[in-house]
Amino acid sequence: MRVLILSSNNGGGHNAAARALQEVFEAHGDLCRVEDCLSFISEDISHAIARSHNFVYRHAPKLFDSGYRHTMKHPKTFMEHHGSRRMLSLGRKNLGRYIRDGGYDAVICTHVFASLMLTDARRKYSLPVRTGVVETDYTATPGTQAGGLDWHFIPAASLADGLAALGVDRAKIVPSGIPVRGAFYDRTDRAEAKRALGIPEGRRHLLVMGGSMGAGPVPELVSALTRQMDKDCAVSIVCGTNRALADGLRAAYGGDDRIAVYDYVDFIPALMDSAELLLTKPGGITVTEAAVKGLPMVLVSTVAGCEGYNLRFFTDLGGAATADTPQALARLSLDLLRDDARRARMAAALEGLARANDREVIWRTMQGMEQRR
Predict the structure, then answer these.
(1) By C-alpha distance, which of 152, 146, 8 is closest to 77?
(2) For residue 264, which of 224, 207, 299, 213 has the smallest C-alpha distance?
(3) Of the candidates 216, 363, 207, 189, which has an alpha carbon nearest to the alpha carbon of residue 290?
(4) Where are the beta strands (DSSP E) in 24-122?
(5) What residue ranges of the chain have pLDDT lower than 50?
(6) Whose CB has fewer CB within 10 Å in the chain, the N or C terminal residue?
């Protein structure tokens, strides 16, 4: 089977899910390509949207949340003939030609922009392809009901009612979990993982992450942690693509052997295996990776929007906790590091979700092996 995965160049999570899906299809011998849907409009527009998204996400989170809530309250934003939909439809000709000339049998989207563009391209050019969209947050993305694809893959069965309430046919809804890379499904003994990373024996390890863009009050969190924590703690901070954040933290804590600062890294699975606890903003991919690893979380409300739903999902589940300020978050994290029993209960709460997270469901469905219910 020839498979095209359409992501969108605004946010690392959608691309991470796309690459995780590519990994599955290629493991089964399928030809699989990942493309940025916005590039079918133009490369310049794709880069401009990505830069704008990244700036707002990092520096104006309240504006990001306001925009998200606006689209929730105004579902017509992504309906046909609306300006937003017409802008996305500018790419349908190039996308339709790309699918036709590439001989693709199936197209899967990891962003609502891609699903809407694909919907319009398939209708306009009568493309004989199987289609699906993967939700990468623990809620129904605004606009997802405006698409017309064959399958909607959702993170958890409990979210099906919300999607159906928006008008999506229940026969199209498939609980699959959010796809993450295969390395997250394997677990390494914590002591062994700590040795591999050079973390001294006996230190409890807190992993701090700000998503692919290093967003959120990370400096404030680290400052509060270092004022409160003992010598038996180790803190690893992953700054993603935020070079200024990494440089600032290294300048401030370079002489503290309890603190390790990383840029964008590809060994997050090893860091999670070595950690007792994760302190992070609740991006859909990050919280899923942690859940699959069985790693308890403290979640930081940074940009709200879809991440607010992720935070609520995991705190309600019992696999995560939260607090209102950097100081309170730091104290909560350090208390949890010392509370083995509570962390064990949080990890147990994640196990059901981890078992149900099966990216192979998406492969089987697109192959036609799963029957419509």
Answers:
(1) 146
(2) 213
(3) 207
(4) 31-36, 106-109
(5) 372-373
(6) C
SS3 32: strand
Per-residue pLDDT tens over the stretch 61-107:
665 556 556 566 556 666 666 667 788 888 999 999 999 999 999 99
For residue 227, count other CB atoms closer than 10 A to its CB.
9
Check if the beta carbon of residue 10 is closer than 8 Å to that of residue 53: yes
Q: Which residues of 105-118 are buried (b: 16+ CB within 10 A; e: fewer)?
A: bbbbbbbbbbbbbb
Domain residue limits, the chain: 2-180+357-367, 185-355
Q: How far apart are CA 322 and CA 300, in angstroms?
A: 7
Bridge partner residues of 153 (DSSP) = 134, 174
| Structure letter (DSSP) for residue 178 | -
Per DSSP, 78 falls in state G
Q: Give the CATH fold of the 185-355 domain.
A: Rossmann fold (3.40.50)
Cα-based distances in Å from 76 to 79, 81, 82, 143, 195: 5, 9, 7, 8, 54
How far apart are alpha carbons 214 and 240 in whole angstroms?
5
Confidence at residue 302, expressed as pLDDT on a 0 to 100 scale: 78
The CATH code that applies to domain 2-180+357-367 is 3.40.50.2000
Global pTM reads 0.90
